[in-house]
Amino acid sequence: MTALKKYQRLEAQGLWRERPGAQARDVIVGLREATLVLSDPRSEAPLSQWSLPATQRLNPGQMPARFAPGEDVGEEVEIDDPEMIEALELVHRAIERRKPRPGRLRGVILLGSVAVVAAIALFWLPGQMKSYAARMLPAPTRADLGDLALADIARLTGQPCKSVPGRRAAAALAARLFPDAPPRIEILRDALPGPAHLPGDLLLIPARLVETSDSPDVIAGHLLVEHLRARAADPLQPLLAHMGLGTTLRLLTRGTAPEDAAKGYGEAFLAAAPGRYPPADQQLAAFEAAGVSSALYGQAARATNGAADALVSQDPFALGAPLPVLSDESWLELQAICSE
Fold first, then answer.
1. How distant is the alpha carbon of residue 138 from its chain centre?
2. Between the chain's N and C termini, which has fewer beta carbons within 10 Å?
3. In the β-sheet with 76-79, what is the strand arrangement from edge to edge?
């Protein structure tokens, strides 16, 4: 978020409670581009990852400041570092400024929005309007739309797997592969044919893929390649096409969508043909940047990924990656994420 440029990579100490009544635990609170990462101060292993737009202060004006990753979640962290508190309050104010306000300003904004929408309706085709909306919608709105889509998909796949150790391992994997802006990883029990992605930097993995893979390097490879595919083809456009022109206009003018806007999207999403794989050189570059060997993924993806042979023969870490993808313990926890 542009409001946080001066606070990039800011860290502070905090006291974290995983749930109400749990014993407080010392953590390092790390501010990232769009997330708040809570890590163990000794091992530096990520313990929890919060969306910055969803983070709320529970006790305004009081110290130490208490923050939670959303309403009625139960998880919270106490922070007494003034600079970190200022940064989190800045995020809150930036988000508040995006919300519509009553009165004259609201009327001016509404009239301006109507004029913009009228011009779009006159000069752009509906498909171009959806492309415009996909470019203009802010990150919090994209994340909300991704959640709407996931809720409808979950009718068919079951709810995302939620074991606490498994989700902790998924957060650690996201931070390991994408340290600057870790995506959200969700593992679905049934019906998902392969890795996929949704708006809001949301990566989906079938549970069977995690449970049957021999190494976390294979899952890391699927995530790296899927992240490239998400960047190549914006996942918001097919969702807007499903929601229709009326919902797109509402998003442009009000910034919100009806709760049932994604109804029926699950069937279309699961039936859609998978996106094209990026060229081999782009995939190899992603593996090299993440410090992950590409050979194990390449061997596992020969049936689907046309670049698999290159990933095996041109592995940038054929002699060994600099860091493991996950510890053995975290890998076992990730494989058991659907056990609860």
1. 14
2. C
3. 46-51, 35-39, 25-31, 11-17, 76-79, 65-68, 56-57
CA neighbor of 67 nearest in space, from 57, 53, 54, 82: 57
- Using alpha carbons, select from 87, 96, 73 the residue that is nearest to residue 20: 73
17 by Cβ neighbours in 10 Å (0-12 / 13-18 / 19+) ranks as middle
Q: What pTM does this model have?
A: 0.65
Could you tell me which residues come within 8 angstroms of residue 139 by beta carbon, excluding any fewer than 6 positions away? 1, 34, 53, 200
Count Cβ atoms below 10 Å from residue 177 Cβ, excluding itself: 24
| 1 three-class SS | coil
* Options 1.10.3720.10, 3.40.50.970, 3.40.50.920, 2.30.29.30; CATH of 2-98: 2.30.29.30
CB-based burial of residue 103 (10 Å sphere; 0-12 exposed, 13-18 middle, 19+ buried)? Answer: exposed
DSSP tag of 247 = H
Give pLDDT tens digits for 132-174: 656 768 888 888 999 999 999 999 999 999 999 999 999 999 9
Provide the pairing of β-strand 184-188 with 76-79: unpaired
Give one DSSP letter per residue of 264-317, joined into a string: THHHHHHHSPPPPPPPHHHHHHHHHHHT--SHHHHHHTTTT-TTHHHHHHT-TT
* Contact (CB, 8 A) for 170 and 334: yes
Query: ∠315-319-323 over CA atoms, to 5°?
Result: 90
For the chain, the structural domain boundaries read 2-98, 134-335
Strand 65-68 and strand 76-79: pairing?
antiparallel
Nearest to 199 by CA among 259, 148, 260, 251: 148
pLDDT digits (tens, 9 = 90+) for 174-204: 999 999 999 999 999 999 999 999 999 999 9
